[in-house]
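ugh ok so i messed up the first submission bc i forgot one of the chains. this is the corrected input, ALL of the components this time, i swear. 248 residues overall. if the numbers dont match what u have on ur side tell me asap before i send this to the collaborators (the ones from the other lab, u know who)
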Amino acid sequence: MLLDSTLDSVEVAEMEVLKAAEDIGFGEDDLHQIGMAVRESMVNAVVHGNRYNARKKVHLSVTKATDRLTVVIADEGEGFDPNQLPDPLAEENLLRQSGRGLLLIRAFVDEFQVRRGQPTGTEVRMVKYLAKAS
Amino acid sequence: MSVKLTTRQVGDVTVIDATGRITLGEAASSFRDEIKDLAAKGEKKLLLNLSDVSYIDSSGIGEMVSSFTTVTNHGGQLKLLGLNKRVKDLLQITKLYTVFEVFDDEASAVRSFA
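and heres the new structure output, hopefully the right one now
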């Protein structure tokens, strides 16, 4: 799915992913976490990656399996090195206004990878597993 | 739905009742502006009631932190009231529980400013 670099696309992506997550059978708390991870990733792609550039797109891929949901979000921006970002949990950074998006995504999905897109941009891959019923 | 803020006085404490979602865009910036205005007017004891806030994203958290800094720089205090479990989880994940004073009931929160 190709999405424009607008904040409306954040809503579109969240709805698309949540529909797939509901099909798999995720519960309400998981849905909230998945939705939040997707929103944060989409905001990163639209705002920091593509910088709202109308000529650049955000690529969304959603893959359903019986036990997991995989979401890949890629932008066409200049790319970044996540290891160069300030640690939002360091004492001196706690009062910074921004920089918590990746922290929240990591907290809300089971697998999270960031890599350089081809030929440019950033691609994030998130996997959430369906918890086995106890 | 974006966030809607209304203010009321409880003694010398200004309670800001927030309703809706605090997310990137107009919602988060209007939230910041409102609290900045209160701080600029000299309000020193601000209690942000989030009981009816269903959703906060990282931008919303950023605006809350920014508001906290603004109020503190004006010599005031900004405290939080009525966080639901999800918002509490966000503060835990981001370690902001160490920054904000958080209360479950309004009376205790108001008394804490004395």
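quick check: The CA atoms of residues 91 and 98 of chain B lie 9 Å apart. that seems consistent at least. Chain B touches chain A at residues 23-25, 57-59, 61-63, 65-66, 68-69, 86, 90, 93-96, 98-99 (CB under 8 Å).
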